[in-house]
Write a structure and sequence with these properties.
heterodimer; A: 222 residues; mainly beta; 1 helix; 17 strands; 41% strand; globular; B: 594 residues; alpha+beta; 8-stranded mixed beta sheet; 5-stranded antiparallel beta sheet; rod-shaped
């Protein structure tokens, strides 16, 4: 036997088992009543109405929820954050997206897609930074989020601009749609706690058990 | 002018009373004027002071507003700063306070204490919606000297208002901190911090300004201060007075007294005014206190008082003079009336008073004159009556004792007739004028004597006189009177015969008994006389009497009761009497008279 052959076999076996794993993964679907957990509807900033690029994005970003799984089988060491920085843009005088879940260890780039200056900063204890003032054509800074927790984003120039980054210690997370529906895919079978972040103060949770190739539907309607 | 015959005495003369009344009136009016004017002045000055004070309060409030407006605006502006809001949401006190201090630097520099105290003369703290203060030791956030951070936070938490009570405006209030160094007055501005793009009201920022530097007097004359929790904070009011004012104000509040508190500074009087400042109900009651000077009021009142006194004295003097003159005029006229009545009282009915003056006294004078006129007339009539009839009859008629109508009554009287012996022969050689003169003289003398002995002359019949003793009024000893009268008449006649022009001899006859006495004649021409047998008898006995002789009847003699020695006459045969009449001679004048 040649080493090449052995390596091929190993690769095939690993990929087959991996594929088998992927092929047997479960799906968790669910929804929450977003309206119940909507934050106090903030004032609409009139200051920038009519300004170029303001459009309808000078209102608050749409309220969405973030669903994610925690469990004994999920550990920090297993996390594989993406290499490429995730983009959180400043567009239409708002953060886009308004709520961004990222895996612990991810990088986030903050490009300025507006024609005005922005100055993104955060004083959150988990991650405190100040990106300074930069314009569209300037190099967008990148931040490395290596502490789990909630990071609140502000723009010094535009006080109505608010953003949230959830730094999560799990690979399984998804942002809901505007109606509150979410779908987690590729979940290995097992026991987990399903958590749904609905606003800064509240996170709903449910214990779930998923089996292979199962689609579990969870409703948070109480 | 006053007579001792009066029963009453003049204790206080009428003039004096009049003057006294007028002076009293003037005094009352003057006193009343003075009192009312003083009150009006005091009231007006009080209003003036009130106006001045409310103006000063308005000024204070306005100045406070202006002074604090910039601060309040600056604070309100910072609360919109998103960095501060971010710091608060992250719970980062250090960043919050240092950022805030940086933002407010322009404002803080005005309040920064220059005395180098540990506290900067100001402080600011954040209090969340649950009412908890966010503590800090950040130097630029300031502190209150004498209070630790926990103490300050606890104190401030009392003033926080949670949740729905927060109003969007800045609240201003006064509090005093009870520190180790005593009570310190602070002015607080409380501004809500609102994240309008986020969770809404996050809490409040309490900004405190130490008031020592702020209590400078507005002007030299108006000394002011702030009264809080029983303590007066002021630079311009002397310390030794503060205790007095504090206790005075405390009493005024409990008793709901009006503003009449007064104090003295350097001998000058001041009135204490106070005005309750608008504070939120969580703050203690605070009052703007001012001392307004009363020196002007006092000098004004003094000068007005002086003017009124002078005017009053002048008025009094004029009143004295005028009342003296007027009273004298009045009393003179009254005294004229008095003189008139005295004259009348003493029988002078001719006195007349001049009815001048055109008032009631003039009417009184006129009445008096009419009265005197009436009395004079009455006297004239009485005279006339007396002259044409006997005085006693006249008196009896005038006094109403004798009715002026026909009628009579039985009366027991003694009748006397007295005539002249040998009259015809005597008068034959005389002229009628001489005869009348002689007779008049004789009748006058005889009448005078008759009147003395209570006799009433009935009539004169030529040379004879008819007299009644005992009518119209009886005296118990009429017979005795008649005899005495007869003897006196004879004595008088004899005296006149020696001294007078004519020599006349008379004879008298007396008879006593019951006769009819009364007014006889025609209804409008009456004559009081008597009728009866005794009348005839007396006449007959008269003609029997010789010269200077008196013949009396037996009845008369009997009534004499032996008091005289009587010589009986011969038995007489008289015309008209069937029986012989017994008569007696009275003793002649050579004998003793009674």
């Amino acid at each position: 036997m040649s080493i090449r052959f052995v390596l091929c076999c190993i690769t095939v076996i690993v990929s087959i088992s991996f594929h088998t794993q992927v092929a047997h993964a479960a799906v968790i679907e669910g929804s929450v009543e977003l309206a119940k957990y909507a934050p106090r509807s903030p004032a609409v900033s009139q200051r920038y109405a009519g300004q170029a690029g303001a459009g309808k994005a000078d209102t608050a970003p749409p309220h969405v929820a973030v669903a994610y799984l925690e469990g004994a089988s999920i550990t920090r060491e297993q996390l594989r954050p993406p290499e490429e920085p995730i983009v959180l843009a400043q567009k239409g005088l708002q953060f886009a997206p308004g709520i961004l879940p990222v895996m612990l260890g991810s990088k986030v780039r903050f490009p300025n897609n507006d024609d005005v200056f922005h100055n993104v900063f955060s004083y959150s204890p988990s991650k405190s930074f100040d990106l300074g003032r930069y314009a569209r054509n300037e190099e967008a800074p990148v931040q490395h989020f290596d502490t789990p927790g909630l990071v609140k984003l502000f723009c010094e120039v535009h006080s109505h601009m608010r953003g949230t980054i959830l730094v999560l210690e799990t690979p399984h997370f998804v942002t809901s749609d505007a109606e509150g529906n979410f779908r987690l895919e590729g979940i290995p079978a097992g026991e987990y706690i399903l958590k749904v972040w609905v606003n800064e103060k509240q996170t709903l949770q449910r214990s779930v058990v998923v089996k292979d190739e199962e689609t579990l539907t969870v409703e948070f309607s109480d | 002018m006053t007579s001792g015959k009066y029963k009453h005495k003049v204790t206080i003369s009428f003039r004096f009373k009049l003057m006294a009344v007028m002076l009293l009136l003037i005094a009352v009016i003057t006193g009343g004027m003075l009192y009312l004017t003083q009150r009006a002045i005091a009231r007006n000055y009080q209003q003036f002071l009130d106006a001045q004070f409310s103006q000063q309060v308005g000024l204070f409030v306005e100045q406070q507003r202006i002074r604090l407006q910039t601060t309040a605006d600056a604070i309100a502006a910072t609360t919109e700063n998103v960095r501060l809001i971010a710091a608060l949401q992250a719970g980062d006190a250090e960043r919050f306070y240092s950022d805030m201090a940086f933002q407010l630097d322009a404002v803080l520099s005005q309040y920064r204490s220059t005395s180098g105290d540990a506290d900067l003369g100001y402080f600011f703290r954040f209090i969340d919606t649950d009412g908890f203060a966010l503590p800090t030791d950040e130097y630029s956030a300031g502190t209150v000297a004498g209070l630790t951070e926990p103490e300050l936070d606890t104190f401030l938490e009392k003033f926080s208002i949670t949740g729905v009570e927060i109003t969007p405006t800045t609240r201003i209030g006064y509090i005093d901190f009870d520190t180790a160094k005593g009570h310190v007055l602070y002015e607080l501005l409380i501004t809500p911090i609102i994240d309008i793009f986020g969770d809404g009201t996050l809490g409040e920022l309490v900004f405190g300004i130490k008031m020592e530097q702020r209590q400078a007097a507005v002007s030299r004359d108006i000394r002011s201060g702030l009264y809080l929790n029983g303590e007066l904070f002021s630079l311009a009011i002397p310390e030794d007075l503060r205790g007095t004012i504090e206790s005075g104000l405390a009493t005024a509040f409990t008793q709901q007294d009006t503003r009449k508190l007064r104090v003295e500074i350097n001998g000058q009087p001041y009135q204490v005014f106070y005005h309750r400042l608008q504070q939120h109900d969580k703050f203690p009651e605070a009052y703007q206190v001012s001392l307004l000077p009363l020196t002007d009021l006092e000098s004004l009142r003094a000068s007005v008082r002086d003017v009124i006194y002078i005017l009053s004295i002048v008025a009094l003097l004029i009143a004295v003079v005028l009342s003296f003159i007027f009273a004298e005029r009045l009393t003179n006229r009254i005294q004229g009336l008095l003189r008139g009545t005295i004259a009348v009282r003493e029988g002078d009915f001719s006195y007349r008073i001049n009815p001048s003056g055109g008032d009631e006294i003039a009417l009184l004078a006129e009445s008096f004159n009419e009265m005197a006129e009436g009395l004079t007339l009455k006297e004239k009539y009485r005279d006339i009556i007396s002259k044409v009839s006997d005085k006693r009859v006249a008196d009896a008629i005038l006094q109403g004792n004798l009715k002026l109508e026909l009628g009579g009554e039985n009366k027991d009287v003694t009748v006397m007739f007295c005539d002249v012996r040998g009259f015809t022969k005597l008068s034959s050689t005389m002229t009628p004028g001489e005869i009348i003169e002689m007779l008049n003289e004789h009748m006058t003398a005889m009448t005078k004597v008759i009147y003395q002995y209570k006799g009433t002359v009935d009539k004169f019949i030529g040379d004879a006189i008819m007299v009644i003793f005992g009518a119209p009024q009886g005296y118990n000893d009429d017979a005795q009177n008649a005899c005495n009268a007869a003897m006196a008449m004879i004595a008088e006649r004899e005296r006149l015969n020696t001294t007078g022009l004519y020599k006349i001899n008379i004879g008298i006859g007396l008879a006593s008994g019951v006769v009819v006495a009364g007014n006889m004649g025609a209804a409008d021409r009456l004559n009081y006389t008597v009728l009866g047998t005794q009348v005839n008898l007396a006449a007959r006995l008269c003609s029997v009497a010789g010269q200077q002789e008196t013949v009396i009847c037996s009845e008369t003699a009997a009534r004499l009761q032996g008091s005289r020695e009587l010589r009986p006459t011969e038995k007489l045969k008289l015309k008209g009497f069937t029986d012989e009449v017994v008569a007696y001679y009275l003793p002649s004048t050579k004998n003793s008279l009674d």
